[in-house]
Amino acid sequence: MDAFTVGTARVTRIEEWGGAFLTPELLFAGFDADRYAATREAISPAYLDHATDAIQARIQSWVIEADGRIILFDTGCGNHKLRPGIPVFDNLNTDFLARLAAAGFAPDAIDLVVCSHLHVDHVGWNTMLVEGEWQPTFANACYVFPAPDVEYWDPDNRHKFPDMVGETVNQGFFDDSVRPILDRGLARIVSGSVEIADGVRLDPNPGHTPGCQTLTLSSRGETAMFVGDVLHHPLQILNPDWNSIFCEDAGQARAARRHVLARAAAEDAILVPAHFAGDHAVRIAATPDGFRALPAFA
Ligand SMILES: [Zn+2]
User: pLDDT of 138-195, one tens digit each?
Assistant: First the structure.
């Protein structure tokens, strides 16, 4: 599924990277071997290599056309970015912008860029290297950043957050992918719930990072929820208390995951996490003891 509609809105998936990323035992804080044995068979091989236990993952962006605006949700890892803390995304050189253009979206046409949160794999294409300088990739866009993350990840504020989890993995991104946007006055820094276009709402769902925000797209009675890293993998639908090892606040992250899953079930929403392989989106059914995934599209 690379494109779908939500009422009159259109959604297009643009992939930056795909491959195997850790095993559940390594990715999930709170991993439980018995629960894994009981739930792994329910996961399609498109999401989990059953021979090696490797999680199948994607880095992908979503273009949302709604209310006459073109919104880019999450911007991947970017090119030429030095990432010593996470070698798999170090100094990438992909044709992401060509894929975006092939889908019909020139960088200058993007009206809004929304980062679900500020992490190395969600902000990368905010900027690109032009004559040795990090320049905004989407020159005509307003970039919507969550206020708590702007404060949290600024290296100048490091002393305020002694218990930071993701410092090593996220080394470098603020200075090459966020500060150049702030310095040019292209950012809109938001707090709380905010409607950024008709039928497009951002809501705070902190935990994975302090500023995690989800985007709800509503049109003509249909709903899609873009939830970033509130969950990383379908195993967390069956085991909603499993956090990733990259979550900053474990308790908040679990609460946010349960909240988002319950809302998706109640609203029959298309749930679009950042890193799902397979169909890249699901619907959620509530069960007597939790949740399970349903196909997003009939
Ligand atoms: Zn991520």
Answer: 999 999 999 999 999 999 999 999 999 999 999 999 999 999 999 999 999 999 999 9
In the reported structure, the alpha carbon of residue 122 is separated from the centroid of ligand 1 by a whole-number distance in angstroms of 6
Domain boundaries, the chain: 3-295
Distance (angstroms) between ligand 1 centre and the Cα of 100 equals 19
How far is ligand 1, taken at its centre, from the CA of residue 161, in Å?
A: 21
Which pairs from 134-138 meet CB under 8 Å and 24+ separation?
134/176, 134/177, 134/180, 135/180, 136/180, 136/181, 136/184, 136/186, 137/75, 137/97, 137/107, 138/72, 138/107, 138/108, 138/110, 138/113
Return the CATH class of domain 3-295: alpha beta
User: Whole-prediction pTM value?
Assistant: 0.98
